[in-house]
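[audit] Reproducing an earlier prediction to check determinism. Same input, same settings, fresh worker. If the tokens differ from the archived copy the diff job will pick it up downstream; this log only records the rerun itself.
[audit] input (95 residues):
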Amino acid sequence: MPAYAVFTRDETVDPDQLNEYFAKVDASFDGHPMKLLADYGTFETLEGEEIEGAVIIEFPDMDAARAWYRSPEYQAIAQHRFKGSRYRGFIVNAT
């Protein structure tokens, strides 16, 4: 069953760190089956606080999504995102 990793950016705090993340993140997907469904495109906030952007990534299942997110390659790159912004992220199964 497909699973989706969803990230919403609430606030940028260090644009240089965030740009470093964006420059490196694509390499973290090597060897991880995924499909990028949404990548900071046009959006409309329906409820809650306004966000700066969102990403939705499809993986074959929860295990594949976790394998990418928890991989040493991604976690090394994610440090730039953690320093550069405030995000929310989660993985959800398709129904």
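[audit] rerun output stored. Observation attached for the diff report: Residues 60 and 80 are 26 Å apart (CA to CA).
[audit] end
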